[in-house]
Automatic annotation (TrEMBL):
This is Sugar phosphate isomerase/epimerase. Keywords: Isomerase. Residues 59-287 form the Xylose isomerase-like TIM barrel domain. It comes from the Bacteria. InterPro entries: IolE/XylAMocC-like, Xyl_isomerase-like_sf, Xyl_isomerase-like_TIM-brl. PANTHER family: HYDROXYPYRUVATE ISOMERASE, INOSOSE DEHYDRATASE. GO terms for molecular function: isomerase activity. Coiled coil: none annotated.
């Protein structure tokens, strides 16, 4: 009798637990995750300048799978040909997705062709600087449309990376709004830098939703609470998860609205080396539960 009662009791408990177990399994199977985690190589520029192969090897071993380059002294391919640099990245489990690059139209077209040849997805214009009037930003928008057309002709995409100045009012308007309104969505995407958007008092979620899906890429670092509202100077930056930016929610929103590429870019280091900081920020994103 005791065994029979125990059997009935255990069977009942199992029946009660099955819906909960099923719910938990379903939740875990549908948990949103970043498709890949990348790093902007400017964060480890000193290491790259000394030893590109060794630095990429370390980034790959950490678990990064994508990289974004920039137009440094050795060019976006670090003194190598496009195919040599792409192979070096691939050999270390890394894919070269994009690069920041600013140049005249002739240089831009040459670089776009080289980038497209190795399967890169984007060339990104990183900096125009503050302008005297809002009409200057309208002219910049027209220039970006031309760059976007060049990229499309060569089989790659174009994007713009806003720093702090597009979020500062000029003639009663925000330049970021003018740039978004006056660029052709077929030619020009944008790279959200959460740090600058937040430190300039704007809401990243509003922009990502309103202009869906134009914010296709992003840069990731956090903002110290005690440094606000100090503005967008780099001294208010901190490791991911140590500041005020709600990345579990914002990155979930980003995925829902067309964002595809996510790059760590820390500028203020709380560890002995930038590579150690790269590891800390990667670990945060690996364990991040999006909501």
């Amino acid at each position: 009798m005791t065994n029979r009662r125990s059997f009935i009791k255990n069977t009942g408990l199992l029946a009660l637990s099955l819906p909960l177990l099923k719910s938990n399994l379903l939740a875990s199977s549908t948990q949103k995750k970043l498709p890949a985690i990348g790093i902007q190589l400017y964060m480890v520029k000193e290491d790259m300048a000394k030893d590109p192969a060794g630095t990429l090897a370390q980034l790959g071993k950490m678990g990064y799978t994508q990289i974004e380059s920039y137009g440094g002294d050795k060019g976006i391919f670090w003194g190598m040909t496009n195919k040599e640099f792409s192979k070096l990245a691939n050999d270390n489990g890394l894919t070269l997705i994009s690069s920041h690059f600013a140049g005249n139209e002739e240089d831009f077209e040459k670089t776009a062709a080289l980038a497209a040849e190795i399967g890169m997805k984007y060339l990104i214009y990183p900096w125009k600087g503050p302008q005297k009037d809002i009409d200057a930003f309208k002219r910049i928008a027209a220039e970006f449309n031309d760059y976007g057309a060049i990229c499309q002709k060569n089989g790659i995409k174009f994007a713009y990376h806003p720093h702090d100045y597009p979020y500062k009012p000029v003639n009663g308007q925000l330049p970021i709004d003018v740039l978004l309104a006056n660029t052709d969505k077929e030619f020009v995407d944008f790279q959200m830098d959460y740090y600058y958007t937040v430190t300039e008092g704007q809401d990243p979620e509003t922009y990502i939703k309103k202009y869906r899906p134009r914010f296709r890429l992003c840069h990731l670092r956090d903002v110290l609470k005690e440094r606000l509202p100090a503005g967008s100077e780099d001294e208010s930056a901190c490791d991911l998860g140590q500041g005020i930016i709600n990345y579990p929610h914002l990155l979930s929103t980003a995925l829902d609205n067309g964002m595809e590429y996510f790059f760590v870019e820390q500028s203020r280091f709380y560890h002995e080396t930038p590579l150690q900081s790269a590891r800390v920020n990667l670990d945060y994103l690996k364990n991040l539960k999006l909501v």
